[in-house]
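Regression test case RT-17, inverse folding.

Input:
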């Protein structure tokens, strides 16, 4: 195989090939005898001059490749032409550029699919040296394709900065490709765009009233479809508002049920009478633990020993290298007092319960700690276990066979946030994997009649969306005329009524905004890649020209 066939540049004639340190230099010239004047188009053969033009090409066998192109200058023989001398142009090489057409196409794709820095690093792996700024300029120079009239249009907003600035993305739903990106989510901007392409038949959108008004104004005959995903999101927000409105009612119910469940069984007494001389108070327990671990204890004992011998304070301070004030305070103390910063707990409240548990076979220290923690113990695990051990020693309790007897589980109602309640209310209880969450929801449903009605309404609404059929007007009428307040749900129902045609189309028609949401997520990814270079025009070209989405 000839080298000219290998590099696939049939218009070039290979003169010479040099190879040095992974650098391949190909000396070549054009095969044509003449060249046409770029001004008048006349074919000329009169050569004025020759020079070498350095052009970068794709690597050959992982070697950086450069074409040293011997270029001719021609004289234009047309007397009426203002161009007297011109350089020949070769179709495989871009005019006024130092790279071949195929290298330029590769860089065009890299500039769109990757950021400037990532593209630069990828180009370096292909033995092409190009800076991040150059790739950004290449991306900005690329023309956008002509917008064809869409039949089914998907519309949604996307965030420049969440909660602050928003734009609009337009998707051809039949091809699932983005056709344009608008710099604002304002309805007037969409109206101006739609007036140019007003032959749209179907528009899928979210529940934004600005988009609805824009479509009515520019394309009054277009069928509008409220996206099912956004309907579910709106329902979730309404449920969140509803659960917030009854939060106090839920809290009082759960508190009462928790008290019932955590009631101590009759066979275990937590009010056992104990002699004062047999056990320390909770405060003294804590103090004894603090003193036992205090590094000052040895020094204190030595000071008290020297005091008993009648040694003066000055001499003790000199020998022990301590201040006289500290020695004087130790002289006045019968026993070492705990540090002021040591943390106290409410362990004394649970002393009787701890003793009762320690006298039962089967209870471990951690079992007891977990129980008193749930009942309101304020200390940490290490401190709590140490306190329990000390109480055990003071009472001289001996326990055997800790693991032989299974312990009854302490009933516990795990609280759920309003957002999680909104999520789980339409679930079958058997589908909730966490048994604590399942128990919590079951407790609410068993004790709040209104909540059972809300659950049924949610399940009916989701069934309508899933099956693509149902009487949404009847559902709205039931919610709005309910004897219960249903805060959040009633405003949601009234909002559905204002957009009833689009909502009905969203339930009954197969079109949805799924493809649009996918491209919105892709915009987020591109924005992260473009950190520091995120101009709207660059973002617009990356979204429209990219082939990765």
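Golden output:
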């Amino acid at each position: 195989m000839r080298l000219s066939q290998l590099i696939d540049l049939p218009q070039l004639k290979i003169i010479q090939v040099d190879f040095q340190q992974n650098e391949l230099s190909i000396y070549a010239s054009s095969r044509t005898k003449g060249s046409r004047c770029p001004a008048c188009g006349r074919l000329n053969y009169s050569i004025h001059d020759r020079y070498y033009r350095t052009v970068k090409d794709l690597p050959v066998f992982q070697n950086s490749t450069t074409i040293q192109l011997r270029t001719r200058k021609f004289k234009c023989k047309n007397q009426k032409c203002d161009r007297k001398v011109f350089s020949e142009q070769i179709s495989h090489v871009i005019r006024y550029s130092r790279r071949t057409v195929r290298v330029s196409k590769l860089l065009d794709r890299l500039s769109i699919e990757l950021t400037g820095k990532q593209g630069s690093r990828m180009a370096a792996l292909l033995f092409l040296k190009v800076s991040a700024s150059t790739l950004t300029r290449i991306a900005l120079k690329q023309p956008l394709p002509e917008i064809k009239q869409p039949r089914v249009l998907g519309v949604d907003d996307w965030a420049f900065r969440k909660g602050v600035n928003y734009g609009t993305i337009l998707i051809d739903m039949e091809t699932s490709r983005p056709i344009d990106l608008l710099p604002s989510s304002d309805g007037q901007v969409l109206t101006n765009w739609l007036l140019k392409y007003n032959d749209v038949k179907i528009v899928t959108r979210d529940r934004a009233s600005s988009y609805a008004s824009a479509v009515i104004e520019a394309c009054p005959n277009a069928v509008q479809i409220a996206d099912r995903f956004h309907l579910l999101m709106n329902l979730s927000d309404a449920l969140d508002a509803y659960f917030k409105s009854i939060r106090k009612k839920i809290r009082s119910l759960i508190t009462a049920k928790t008290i019932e469940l955590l009631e101590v069984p009759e066979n275990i007494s937590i009010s056992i009478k104990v002699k004062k001389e047999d056990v320390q108070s909770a405060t003294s327990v804590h103090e004894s633990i603090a003193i036992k671990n205090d590094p000052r204890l040895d020094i204190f004992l030595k000071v008290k020993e020297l005091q008993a011998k009648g040694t003066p304070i000055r001499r003790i301070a000199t020998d022990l290298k301590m201040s006289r004030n500290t020695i004087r305070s130790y002289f006045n103390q019968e026993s070492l007092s705990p540090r002021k910063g040591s943390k106290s707990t409410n362990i004394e409240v649970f002393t009787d319960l701890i003793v009762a548990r320690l006298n039962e076979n089967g209870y471990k220290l951690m079992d007891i700690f977990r129980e008193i923690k749930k009942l309101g113990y304020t200390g940490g695990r290490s401190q709590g276990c140490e306190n329990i051990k000390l109480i055990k020693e003071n009472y001289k309790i001996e326990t055997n066979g800790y693991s032989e007897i299974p312990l009854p589980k302490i009933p516990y109602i795990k609280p759920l946030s309003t957002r999680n309640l909104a999520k789980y209310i339409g679930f079958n209880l058997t589908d909730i994997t966490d048994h604590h969450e399942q128990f919590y929801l079951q407790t609410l449903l068993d004790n709040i009649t209104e909540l059972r009605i809300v659950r049924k309404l949610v399940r009916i609404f989701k069934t309508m969306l899933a099956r693509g059929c149902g009487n949404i007007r009847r559902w709205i009428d039931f919610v709005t005329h309910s004897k219960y307040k249903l805060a959040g749900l009633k405003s949601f129902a009234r909002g559905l009524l204002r957009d009833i045609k689009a909502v009905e189309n969203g339930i009954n028609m197969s079109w949805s905004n799924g493809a649009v949401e996918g491209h919105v997520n892709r915009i987020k990814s591109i924005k992260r890649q473009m950190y520091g270079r995120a101009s709207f025009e660059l973002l617009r070209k990356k979204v429209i020209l990219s082939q990765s989405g």
